[in-house]
């Protein structure tokens, strides 16, 4: 008998645990309310902020293979509304949310729902568990319908025989478990587990190690309220104190899914949280050593430590080596979002040693090659020492070579100006991969250059008082990324290393735009794709993940559809809660 498509839209009838439903808002039950779109009518599940309803079970009573789609609403914006689903056979649930539909519909977020592809699955004997993850944060949860589209025998054979290329790199932000309920070491594997069927080959997880002093009385007394900040801090403390067991479980999970797990470290050392002198994310080493801070052109200390000082380099080397000892497959050095070198005395001395008759180092314009020669000398030396220590440790322990992946700016030149000489790093075999970020940081001082070609101090100080000196740019322009990707790609080919280009910023455009961007990057000479903030941002957004999760090699990227309907469909709500929305909407439309 031919299988037919099944839509479960009346969730009040489909849910087994009817006593867990309520027709009105409840702190410990799911609200179940009627709705209609042009094509679908039913009742949807909703849980409001700071509610803790128990899980629900839906048994579709299906046999055989189906493509499974989920329909949700974007009530409240990114991260404000997400839900967890799992099949009976799943080891972990999957957190998911609707994408931001605001850019491509004329309706408000309370007038539309988004259906997106979730997965392919053999539904024989499988039920769906619906959960709201209780982190203490003010999240909502909703689901409108589940749609099961039957797969032919040929489609099942193709799906089971097809193996993803495992050539993407996925970055996991340091905050990613603050949006979850991870308590035990195994719980922290959820995101990694849910990437196993994607093209992700390397998962780069930001780690904290002992950078924060959780035992500081000031730190403990800072956050009396149970708000997002306190919950994040509690998460970081829990993860830091149990990190060896957590990382062991995560590494095992990654390897079982055919992926490597590397430890990502933010290289600029600063106490960056607001207000900057408070112990939220405070690094004690930064606080205790103001004598190692970077300096402006004219000697003013700034809020970053300088790698020109051996004590700073040693501090970071020991932090990176801890990741090797914890069993990670390598490290990612995140050099974006800050500075590591400026015009401090040790940098100026390197310059003076090579150019004894040159002008004062502090007066050289930022694009003068002599400026970044000195910076590159420091940073190349630092990475040489890191490579030596990692290789010695690998030989001592029998570990495979530890990968060193470096994230620089979106052009080779921009990275060099900030101390990253990728040509030398690759030529000497110091690194295993380059990640091209979609960011640039530079000194905005072109209008401060005098007739002699040097910085005019008076103009410079005047600008510092009234405008930007340090500027930063997130490039959401795929054409600009593609140009930089070509430069990096040629360098990677020359020295036989991996090269990844970050997609434009996450959760800002419809899913199909990421496909178009990836194709431009590959056409421009890029090699592979990196997903910044893959967790939680991209992995949670079901429609975006459907578009980006298969971006492996060039052939798989070019085969992806540019049609947004391949990843999601948007449906206007015509009725909700018994109120017809077609002619007048009581929410904001009057």
Provide structural commentary.
- It contains 18 helices and 26 strands.
- It is of the alpha/beta class and 590 residues long.
- Strands 1, 2, 3, 4, 6, 9, 11, 12, 25 and 26 form a ten-stranded mixed beta sheet that branches.
- Helix 14 packs across helix 15 and helix 15 (511-523) runs parallel beside helix 17 (542-548).
- The protein is elongated, with a radius of gyration of 26 Å.
Number of strands: 26
Through-space gap between termini = 50 Å
Q: Main beta sheet: strand number and arrangement?
A: 10 strands, mixed
Query: Per CATH, what is the topology of the domain at 6-162 and 568-580?
Result: Jelly Rolls
* Derived structural class: alpha/beta
CATH architecture of the domain at 6-162 and 568-580: Sandwich
Residue-averaged pLDDT, rounded? 90
List the helices and strands and how they pair.
Elements: E1 6-8, H1 11-14, E2 21-22, E3 30-37, E4 41-47, E5 56-58, E6 65-72, E7 83-87, E8 94-96, E9 112-122, E10 128-131, E11 141-143, E12 145-150, H2 153-161, E13 168-172, H3 190-193, E14 200-206, H4 217-221, H5 228-241, H6 243-256, E15 260-266, H7 284-288, E16 293-295, E17 301-305, H8 310-325, E18 330-334, H9 345-354, H10 369-397, E19 403-408, H11 412-417, H12 422-427, E20 433-436, E21 439-443, H13 457-466, E22 470-474, H14 478-495, E23 498-502, H15 511-523, E24 528-535, H16 537-540, H17 542-548, H18 554-558, E25 568-576, E26 579-580
Parallel strand pairs: 2-3, 13-14, 13-24, 14-15, 15-18, 18-19, 19-20, 20-23, 23-24
Antiparallel strand pairs: 1-12, 3-4, 3-25, 4-11, 5-10, 6-9, 6-12, 7-8, 7-10, 9-25, 16-17, 21-22, 25-26
Helix pairs in contact: 8-10, 9-10, 14-15, 15-17
């Amino acid at each position: 008998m031919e299988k037919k498509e099944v839509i479960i839209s009346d969730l009040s009838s489909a849910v087994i645990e009817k006593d867990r439903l309520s027709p009105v808002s409840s702190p410990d039950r799911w609200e179940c309310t009627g709705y209609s779109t042009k094509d679908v009518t039913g009742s949807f599940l909703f849980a409001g902020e700071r509610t803790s309803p128990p899980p629900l079970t839906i048994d579709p009573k299906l046999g055989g293979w189906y493509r499974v789609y989920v329909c949700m609403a974007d009530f409240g914006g990114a991260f404000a509304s997400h839900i967890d689903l799992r099949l009976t056979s799943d080891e972990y649930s999957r957190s998911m949310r609707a994408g931001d539909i605001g850019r491509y519909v004329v309706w408000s977020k309370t007038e539309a729902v988004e259906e997106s592809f979730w997965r392919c699955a053999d539904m024989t004997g499988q039920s769906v568990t619906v959960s709201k993850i209780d982190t203490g944060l003010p999240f909502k949860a909703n689901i409108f319908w589940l749609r099961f589209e039957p797969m032919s025998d040929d489609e099942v054979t193709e799906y089971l025989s097809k193996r993803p290329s495992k050539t993407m790199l996925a970055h996991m932000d340091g905050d990613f478990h603050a949006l979850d309920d991870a308590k035990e070491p195994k719980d922290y594997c959820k995101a990694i587990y849910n990437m196993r069927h994607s093209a992700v080959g390397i998962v780069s997880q930001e780690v904290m190690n002992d950078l924060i002093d959780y035992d500081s009385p000031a730190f403990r007394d800072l956050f009396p309220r149970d708000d997002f900040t306190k919950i994040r801090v509690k998460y970081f403390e829990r993860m830091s104190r149990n990190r060896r067991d957590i990382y062991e479980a995560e590494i095992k999970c990654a390897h079982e899914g055919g992926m490597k797990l590397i430890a990502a470290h933010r290289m600029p050392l600063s106490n960056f949280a607001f207000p900057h002198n408070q112990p939220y994310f405070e690094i004690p080493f930064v606080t205790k050593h103001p004598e190692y801070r970077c300096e402006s052109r004219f000697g003013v200390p700034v809020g970053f430590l300088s790698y020109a000082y051996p004590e700073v380099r040693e501090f970071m080397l020991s932090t990176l080596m801890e990741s090797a000892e914890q069993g990670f497959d390598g490290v990612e050095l995140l050099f974006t979002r800050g500075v590591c070198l400026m015009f401090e005395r040790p940098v100026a001395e390197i310059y003076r040693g090579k150019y004894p008759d040159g002008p004062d180092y502090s007066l050289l314009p930022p694009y003068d090659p002599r400026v970044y020669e000195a910076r590159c000398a420091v940073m190349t030396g630092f990475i040489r020492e890191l490579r030596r220590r990692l290789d010695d440790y690998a030989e001592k322990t029998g570990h495979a070579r530890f990968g060193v992946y470096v994230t620089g700016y979106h052009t080779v030149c921009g990275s060099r100006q900030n101390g990253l000489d990728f040509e030398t790093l690759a030529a000497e075999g110091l690194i295993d991969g380059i990640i091209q970020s979609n960011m640039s940081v530079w000194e905005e001082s072109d209008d401060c250059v005098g007739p002699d070609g040097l910085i005019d101090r008076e103009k410079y100080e005047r600008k510092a008082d009234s405008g930007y000196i340090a500027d930063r740019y997130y490039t959401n322009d795929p054409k600009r990324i593609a140009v930089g990707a070509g430069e990096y790609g040629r360098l990677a080919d020359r020295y036989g290393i991996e090269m990844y280009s970050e997609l434009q910023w996450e959760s800002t455009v419809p899913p199909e735009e990421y496909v178009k961007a990836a194709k431009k990057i590959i056409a421009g000479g890029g090699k592979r794709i990196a997903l910044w903030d893959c967790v939680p941002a991209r992995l949670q957004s079901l429609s975006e993940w459907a578009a980006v999760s298969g971006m492996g090699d060039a052939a798989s990227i070019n085969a992806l559809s540019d049609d947004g309907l391949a990843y999601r469909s948007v449906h206007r709500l015509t009725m909700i809660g018994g109120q017809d929305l077609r002619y007048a909407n009581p929410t904001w439309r009057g």
